[in-house]
Design brief:
The chain is of the alpha/beta class and 375 residues long. It is built from 14 helices and 13 strands.
Length: 375
């Protein structure tokens, strides 16, 4: 019989952008691949590729108790029905409740990808602190038995996760991000003409959207001839999403050009001189490794998952998080010398080739799956 692999992911577009190459390679290695996720338009494509889809209702916000219990109950039923050889859980809710469901159903081979610690570990205030305590308890219930294979994307998340679980000796596997297809994101020369800078991200507060606009305002007031682009859509299901009134005010101000969601990210980067991401925290930013592959210098924040995507001073520059003045200064420094921009971009491409090739990421996952299925 074919070995079966079940992915549990919060939403289908995230699976397509971050895990699809792994699933395709797994099928080529003889695995029957299943996917449990919230479907938002990718189901037909996924089924055509041969992936068996199990649509589920997964609230990516805080949700309520009844929704959480329904999600957990649905996962238990799915695990019992499909009896997968391996379950791969990706993102916070699937990891927490998939891990609990696996323990309840006796599902043995569990892989948990900690792709960033999420909004709840970034937000501040009393309620955020209480939610962190709750999530910490749930992580311990889900993965505290030490039997799951834990994948992390950066060393800060690894250390924080071990402390949160209360198991400093817990074994983890470091795989730096989801990788980038170096053929689809080729090295391109810098464009001619005035400077163009792009931030490509969902329009969330914790991606640093407000700081990006503020930095653009600072540099405009200094008289710098720079076009600032912001490529991305709102994500209403995410608690950190900017409000419609905020978005309207930003567009009316006109400091930044909003382009919405862009499908061809490689072409977007080829049209720009610098890529900026002032995020508060990431697992390992996919857009930054795509920027490196395209040979674009980067300005990002000195936080986990962002600083891990560059070689500071060689492929990009770091700014302080939540600090528009620091971000503006880093952008001005990076764009002050076109030759240096080119050199940082070429160094970024070499870094991407050595570190972020998607083929390496896929191969490492298949090694993990094969070891579990034959163990």
């Amino acid at each position: 019989m074919r070995k079966s692999l079940l992915f549990v992911v919060n939403v289908d577009w995230f699976f397509v952008s971050h895990r699809l190459p792994i699933a395709i390679e797994a099928m080529q290695h003889g695995y029957e691949v299943h996917l449990a996720t919230q479907m938002t338009g990718q189901e037909e494509r996924l089924r055509e590729l041969g992936i068996i889809c199990h649509p589920m209702s997964i609230d990516r916000g805080y949700g309520g108790f009844l929704h959480i219990m329904h999600f957990l109950w649905s996962l238990c039923g799915l695990f019992r029905k499909t009896r997968p050889d391996i379950v791969h859980l990706v993102s916070i809710k699937p990891v927490i409740f998939g891990g609990i469901a696996a323990r309840l159903t006796g599902t043995k081979n569990v892989v948990a990808s900690i792709s960033g610690l999420g909004f709840v570990f970034i937000a501040k205030g009393l309620m955020a602190g209480l939610r962190r305590r709750l999530v910490q308890l749930l992580y311990r219930l889900s993965l505290g038995n030490g039997k799951a294979t834990i994948i992390v994307q950066n060393t800060s998340d690894r250390d924080d996760f071990k402390r949160m679980i209360g198991k400093p000796d817990m074994e983890t596997i470091l795989i730096r991000g989801s990788g980038v297809d170096l053929d689809q994101y080729p090295l391109t020369p810098l464009p001619e003409g005035p400077l163009r800078i792009v931030m490509a991200a969902r329009l969330l507060h914790d991606k640093g959207v407000v700081e990006y606009l503020s930095a653009a305002r600072i540099l405009r007031d200094k008289g710098l001839d720079i076009t600032f682009l912001l490529a991305g859509d709102v994500d209403p299901a995410n608690p950190a999403c900017i409000s419609q009134s905020e978005l309207t005010a930003m567009k009316e101000e006109g400091v930044v050009t909003f382009s919405g969601h862009v499908q061809d990210v490689a072409s977007l980067m080829a049209s720009c001189h610098l890529v900026v991401l002032p995020s508060y925290r990431e697992g390992l930013s996919k857009v930054l490794i795509e920027a490196a592959a395209c040979g674009r210098a980067i300005v990002t924040t000195d936080v986990p998952g962002c600083r891990d995507a560059i070689v500071s001073g060689e492929t990009g520059l770091l700014a302080e998080p939540r600090d528009a003045a620091s971000l503006a200064a880093a952008i001005e420094q990076a764009t002050g010398d076109r030759q240096r921009l080119e050199e940082m971009g070429k160094a970024g491409r070499r870094f991407a080739e050595a570190t972020f090739d998607v083929r390496q990421v896929v191969a490492r996952h298949l090694e993990i799956y094969d070891a579990l299925s034959t163990g």
